[in-house]
């Protein structure tokens, strides 16, 4: 089931920047605006709710400065919505998964894949503790459907934050077959889970991201477990089509048991 959340712009602060692996940088954000707040210091502005991220594949928009600028163009907070065009210049933003949200310590982790051509990827390389950062969202959140016997999960490293969070949040009564494509063994992560998980790492071994059919080949040649499956697949867009086709035609998965999302497109 998909639920809509209020669109909120939050100004946060970088608490820490750490390398999770050689290809993934974790930015921990904190600040009073992760709680409920009023946009005006005298309390006469718009009151917005506290940050929440109920679902493993929620995403926030990270707002980025345009080249040569220190600060991003920001949307204007209105009651229940944001005006993205108020300044006449549209904000630059990219989507990232809340990898960890600890409401008690007020810390939010976002994991950024390092790649040479990216605006967000290079911005992250400049971040230091104390720097400001702005996020919007999540504005949508989805829960796993009921009555599912097992999960088929696949993705490249951009999906790893969501996959890691999913596996950590699954209880012992869940079963999952998981495929993750990364550059090589140095990019694998240790993920704790209580669930019964069969996790397969796929290595590109020198091939550029988004250039192989590793994921479709691995997924479509896997043995199919008994019972009702729910399939969640995310990553580079072109690998989704063969997987979607196979899930629908070979295994009769219907829309309510399919969640396939292109996270980026190779160009
Ligand atoms: C719902 C959702 C959640 C996401 N969660 C995450 C997340 O938690 N962590 C994460 O790292 N990404 C995540 N992504 C993917 C991320 O938003 C894209 O990879 C985004 O394009 C990165 O922005 P950029 O500014 O670095 O690169 P862009 O400026 O958007 O792209 C520049 C060039 O880099 C290429 N490129 C983009 N991404 C990659 C990549 N990963 N590897 C190699 N080449 C690339 C593009 O093809 C383009 O040629 C998510 C996407 C969605 C839709």
Task: Kindly describe this structure.
This protein is mainly β and 267 residues long. The chain has 2 domains: 2-140, Translation factors (Elongation Factor Tu (Ef-tu), domain 3); 144-264, Rossmann fold (3-Layer(aba) Sandwich). Helix content is 13%, strand content 37%. It has helices spanning 119-126, 160-169, 214-220, 240-249, and strands at 2-4, 9-21, 24-30, 37-38, 47-48, 60-64, 76-78, 81-83, 92-96, 98-102, 107-113, 132-136, 140-142, 150-155, 175-182, 196-203, 229-236, 258-264. The strands form 5 sheets. It has a 7-stranded antiparallel beta sheet. α3 (214-220) runs parallel beside α4 (240-249). The longest helix has 10 residues, at 160-169. The structure holds flavin-adenine dinucleotide (FAD).
The number of distinct helices, counting runs of at least 4 residues, comes to: 4
SS-derived structural category: mainly beta
Second CATH tier, the architecture of the largest domain? Beta Barrel
* CATH-assigned fold name of the largest domain: Elongation Factor Tu (Ef-tu), domain 3
Overall pLDDT, averaged? 95
Strand runs, count:
18
How would you write the strand order of the largest sheet?
Answer: 9-6-12-2-3-11-10
* Overall helicity: 10-25%
What bound compounds does this protein have? Answer: flavin-adenine dinucleotide
**Multimerization status:** single chain
Summarize this entry quickly.
The chain is mainly beta and 267 residues long. It contains four helices and 18 strands. The chain folds into two domains: 139 residues, Translation factors (Elongation Factor Tu (Ef-tu), domain 3); 121 residues, Rossmann fold, CATH 3.40.50.80.
